[in-house]
Design a protein that fits this description.
The chain is mainly α and about 325 residues long. About 75% of the residues lie in helices and about 0% in strands. The longest helix has about 40 residues, at about 270-310.
Length: about 325
Amino acid sequence: MTLKKYFWPVVGAVTIAVSAWLLYKELRGLSLEELGESLAAISTRNWILCGVSTLLAYAALAGYDRIALMHLGRKVNWLFITICSFTTYALSHNVGASVVSGGVVRYRAYSSRGLTPAEIGILIALCSFTFVLGTVLLAGIVLILKPHITERFGDLLPVTASSATGYVVLALVALYVAGSFLKMRALTIGPFKIVYPSPRVVLPQLIIAPLELIGAAGIIYFALPEAGNPGFVVVLGIFLLSFSAALISHVPGGLGVLELVFVMGLPDMDPADVIAALLVFRLFYLLIPFAIALVVILFFERSQFRAQHPPDMERGKQHSP
């Protein structure tokens, strides 16, 4: 138990240290003045597009929860789902250990709507799987369109891929979809019964998950200048790798991991421009939503406390003149 308790914090700390050291080697000539100039060079139009991309990403994230609730056959108010999803991801993206931190928020929220712990567990698992499915689907498409993208990372990612790899990846996604249409049998593991998602669940997964990732990557793309920009597909591919690495490492906010992968993946661009774009991403996708989420949690907990401890009206009547 002690090992489990400290394992991920240690992994996160080591990842931050290694990423910071490698990032320092890449950025040791960068000055704050250059960074400020890069931020100032972002046009008003692109700032607006970054904001629109953020709205797209978080709207799609709300779809994760809706899809999971559809699978469970549970009906919950759409506004409640949207607020819960927004709060969950805004918190987990910043805190790290997304399954745990996000799970706490979802448990508090959905248990107030009558969902059982088992149902909430399935909801969390299906939301995580939807993200993985979207990542795999887009990774396959990126590899088909840009098969040599892995060469950008050199020693950081000693793996080569080709367009054939992309087709294999998409074939795996196709097998998952086929299993849905073939109505695969439910799998029983001890007291748990895992039901294969129906087509009405799977098909929205194939749309919502890619939209969320495209929106998140769009923030960075629109914050980057045109000079040396390799195009949206490459930026998306780099984002998929960096964001997945950040989640796996459990580093809060992907601190250092995102920056390292992007700086190495965009060698033809000015590092100051890349870091400036990532600062915009952190502002729109992480920091602003995190601040809003803290306020939402405060009001939710306050409403829950009042619901469980209603004012004693009778006592008030007794003391009234």
